[in-house]
Amino acid sequence: MTDAQKTQMTGRQPPRAGEPRGGQRGTAGEPGTRRAGGQGSPGESAARTAGGRGKRGEPRAGRAGAGEPPKARRVSRQREAGEATRRETRRRLLAAAKAEFAERGYAAATVVRIAERADVSVQTLYSNWGSKRNLLRAVMESSVTGDEDVPLVAGQPPRVITATIDPADAADPRRLLAHLSHQYRLLAERAAVGWQTYRDGAAVDPDIAADWEQLSDLRRRAFHTFFARVPAGALRPGLSNAAAADTAWVIASPDAHDLLVCHAGYSYDQLEAWARSTLSAALLAGPEPG
What we know:
Residues 22-55 have low confidence and may be disordered. The protein is globular, with a radius of gyration of 39 Å. By secondary structure, the chain is mainly alpha-helical. It has 13 helices and no strands. Helix 3 crosses helix 6, helix 9 (173-202) crosses helix 13 and helix 10 crosses helix 11 (241-251). The longest helix is centred in the first third of the chain and has 38 residues, at 71-108.
């Protein structure tokens, strides 16, 4: 096809000899006409890539904008949400286990029914607690501490007991024992299911029996720490602080609760009054004021 025919068809004049064709370059560094879809002038390139990446290091428009939290903050929030979900799952499993133990006892309770009560899979139960035995221990410890996330600490009374002591009560041995009696009553109300489950389970499972023995020892050590604050002069003549702690350990005990509440039919008000008068009579010097 001749140049004249091309001109007639396209309406464009063909390049003269030596001139660059469209999309090619002329002399060194001289831009030619931009090829469709190709690279044009720097201004054209910047306009064409608006909303995309411009100069090296500049972010694309539409990506992280002003006010969007950094990646580290997003990860932190995701972790917080995941931890909240995990705590809620563990709480539901503890509540389901406590209900299952109350109805069926330790031996007849099953992880399948506990998981169903909590509306989770059995694998989720094992992932969070490991075993039915661990669940019982967690039910017991959370009942003692009054908090599902606070474990027992060896040799220390639960904080729920010590943190609520009024300074005036701490200075008066009788008022201190009254406080202890009240906390024993509250503990018995929270821990009755765990105490009964451990007592029954220990008769048929040696591992549960070993755990129950360990929990009893933790309770005794906590009493010794508690009674170390009682002035020796306030106790009956010849009664040491250690002997006073052991006496209180026996009086304010799961066994006393079982005998008086479960068998003798005492109310919890009566249990508290009994513990208070018995502790005062057994431990303190002089008669109780009328």
